[in-house]
């Protein structure tokens, strides 16, 4: 985007970063750290690159979205000008921002388990799947009739639901298939459930099952979806917190970086030191966090003054 003033462009770059951060956390349930890239890691030609960094289950970092404040460099290169209030030609102040399909990878690597995908309810295309277990066609018709009302009520609450009564696959296959696809909630009704007016409910995030009454089940499912969303986020956040450590010496850093995760350390601000660390440890500065530790210190490598701690990690 093009702007008339530097202030407008910088505000736009930060605003878009906040949009990406909100999307990642509220919808994808992926906690991210907002910050600015070092000069060595920023987009070529940009004055500043802002980033959101996420941690995957294996402890590696994933740059999950960037927003670049390009200044007037690209405007000068491509001769993009406008007439200002003084009726004079002036180069625009530009920004560039975006996310990509790597967010799909972030979603998979942050939440999923050995059974397949674990999708946050706020993003899942199918939030609830209902599977019948029946002995004969007559029993299936009775379950169909019972489930029809539940499906309608769930949809009226804005919940996406699929009733899978196809007869070409066994229930066990369907269970595994929907777990693989990450459907957040599975409801099952069998013959005994039909008699007792109950359903078995399983949540994909913990694989916990329970049997509940069909009375008020729609409200229960709606609340459960929000609980699953929050639980998935908190699990990822706790993992990131557990895998984030603070070090003060380079020897300690070399040991800790082998364990994965985010390492908070002081850095003297020079490209030379940054390159040395990258060459010797394969770790890069993921960002200088906006809300990080601003206490001055000494660079872990050179001992020179450091304004704040930055986040180092190995990354994808």
Describe the structure.
The chain is an alpha+beta fold and 316 residues long. The protein has helices spanning 6-26, 73-78, 102-111, 137-156, 171-180, 191-196, 217-242, 250-257, 271-281; strands spanning 2-3, 32-36, 48-55, 61-71, 81-83, 89-91, 93-98, 128-132, 161-163, 185-189, 198-203, 209-213, 244-246, 262-266, 284-289, 297-298, 305-306, 309-313. It is built from nine helices and 18 strands. The strands form four sheets. It has a nine-stranded mixed β-sheet with strand order 1-7-4-3-2-15-18-14-13. It has a five-stranded mixed β-sheet with strand order 9-8-10-11-12, sandwiched between helices. The radius of gyration is 26 Å and the shape is elongated. It starts with a strand and ends with a strand.
